[in-house]
Amino acid sequence: MQVHLCTISFRHHLLSLQQLAPWAQQQGFAGIELWGIHARHLYESSPQLQGGWLSQYQLRVPMLSDYLDLNAPAAQLEAQALALAKLARHWQAPKVRTFSGNKGSAEVSEAERQRWTQRLAEVAQMMAEQGLLLLVETHPHTLADSGEATLRLLEEVNHPALRINFDTLHVWEGGGDPLQWYRRLAPWVAHFHLKNISAAQYLSVFSPANVYAAAGSRQGMVPLFEGVVDYRHFLAPLLGDGRVEVSLEWFGPQVQQVLAEDLRQLQALQAPVRRQSA
Questions:
Q1: Distance in angstroms (rounded) separating the CA atoms of residues 251 and 255
Q2: What pLDDT band is residue 272 in, cutting at 50, 70 and 90?
Q3: Is the pTM here over 0.90, yes or no?
């Protein structure tokens, strides 16, 4: 299992990629998942920073995490998607992540659903032509807000380049056992986001209006192995698979300390599996 950090965790910190990369290497991360706005700003201000530059630290960019507007005019969406694909190639990232609309699966009208799924199919085709995968994240207030809804979305889009970024906490939030849903969705899962919360009553802290605000609440955010999702249970069948890629998505304080400790515990879980396979 390859473990990455997310630059979105450092969204309110004055820390450069030149500082972050050697630290990530020292801790033992496999790569750095770039938030779309960070990837764009770095491309504009420091074009010499790209996938090849990052490889000197034995790191890679597994995914760009961005937000394509499925409600935009077709020409605008196409331009956004092609620009994102160009950015992914610059960083040598094989995957780009987006959301499937901005309404829950039970709230969206049939006309909106058809428009969004058609547009996701079109964007997936654009990404495929660039040698990339398009990942839709399991997330509240989207067409992938539960396991059942995600399966339906995959069936309706029906494109081989469309995959799933399996946000484990949000799958739990949508109902059901995350491990059981992973097993059903496994053919489409290309990445995992891992985070946790102390109790369901605090899930609203991850709403965009709060989590992206510098003064937003962080109540209930806890390190990976201290919350309601049992990650030791969830990750057990994945630990020995080197193809599995996960990103630690921490939105709370003491970013470097929490990420380093979560990685250390993940490494400790993987150690016996590695010894058995050696």
A1: 8
A2: confident
A3: yes
139 labelled catalytic: yes
Mean pLDDT, range 143-157, rounded to an integer: 97
- Distance in angstroms (rounded) separating the CA atoms of residues 110 and 70: 15
- Identified catalytic residue from 139, 170, 191, 193: 139
Q: Is 194 exposed, middle or buried (0-12, 13-18, 19+ CB in 10 A)?
A: buried
pLDDT of amino acid 277: 65
Q: How far apart are CA 166 and CA 194, in angstroms?
A: 9
